[in-house]
């Protein structure tokens, strides 16, 4: 099987049951999920074995994201979705488990800390963008709404995982403070 097909050279791509423009809302939605999956792979690569639990959970999430992209690539009546409500429930359990390892949140938190936590924050904002793309898609045509819910919970989990990484590195959350000014020299 060749990597290139040349079938997309004119700006169209194949879906399951249709062909669409590469800037179609459906293609944008699953393309952003693919981007998120790649950034999660990068975050995993930055984590060491101290974070084996996060690595394992993030790897499962990568498989789920592949399924989510497949769900969104389906057009037509005979849809068989792979992302289901129980997967959202599983994310909520992970959020609760990891959140129990962090101090209570008493202020808005700036993204950052150690580089691995910053990588997870970057994944979080891409998950939010993917969710927005799926919201648009669901408004325009039928799609698996569980993917939207999954992405919403996933961004919360990525936020919580970033906090866990900082806690393990003994790095405190960076509180947001309004009206910050640059120091004059």
From TrEMBL:
Any single Pfam family the record assigns to this protein: Cob_adeno_trans
EC number: 2.5.1.17
Catalyses which reaction(s): 2 cob(II)alamin + reduced [electron-transfer flavoprotein] + 2 ATP = 2 adenosylcob(III)alamin + 2 triphosphate + oxidized [electron-transfer flavoprotein] + 3 H(+); 2 cob(II)yrinate a,c diamide + reduced [electron-transfer flavoprotein] + 2 ATP = 2 adenosylcob(III)yrinate a,c-diamide + 2 triphosphate + oxidized [electron-transfer flavoprotein] + 3 H(+)
Pathway(s) where this gene product acts: Cofactor biosynthesis; adenosylcobalamin biosynthesis; adenosylcobalamin from cob(II)yrinate a,c-diamide: step 2/7
Record-level GO BP terms: cobalamin biosynthetic process
Transmembrane segments: none
Keywords attached to this entry: ATP-binding, Cobalamin biosynthesis, Nucleotide-binding, Transferase
A GO molecular function held by the record: corrinoid adenosyltransferase activity
Region described as Disordered: spans on this chain: 1-20
N-terminal signal peptide: none
Subunit structure comment from the entry: Homotrimer.
Assigned protein family: Belongs to the Cob(I)alamin adenosyltransferase family.
Protein name per Swiss-Prot or TrEMBL: Corrinoid adenosyltransferase
Organism: Shimazuella alba
């Amino acid at each position: 099987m060749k990597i290139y097909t040349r079938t997309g050279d004119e700006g169209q791509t194949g879906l399951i049951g249709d062909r669409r423009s590469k800037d179609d809302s459906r293609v944008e939605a699953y393309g952003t999920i693919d981007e998120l999956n790649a950034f999660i792979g990068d975050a995993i690569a930055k984590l060491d074995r101290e974070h084996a639990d996060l690595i394992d959970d993030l790897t499962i999430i990568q498989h789920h994201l592949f399924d989510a992209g497949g769900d969104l690539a389906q057009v037509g009546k005979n849809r068989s979705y792979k992302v289901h409500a129980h997967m959202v429930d599983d994310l909520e359990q992970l959020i609760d488990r990891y959140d129990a390892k962090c101090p209570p949140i008493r202020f808005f938190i700036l993204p950052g800390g150690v580089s691995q936590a910053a990588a997870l924050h970057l994944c979080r904002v891409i998950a939010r963008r993917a969710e927005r793309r799926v919201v648009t898609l669901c408004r325009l045509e039928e799609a698996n709404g569980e993917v939207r819910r999954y992405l919403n919970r996933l961004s919360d989990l990525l936020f919580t995982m970033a906090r866990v990484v900082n806690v393990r590195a003994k790095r405190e959350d960076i509180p947001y403070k309004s009206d910050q000014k640059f120091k004059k020299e």
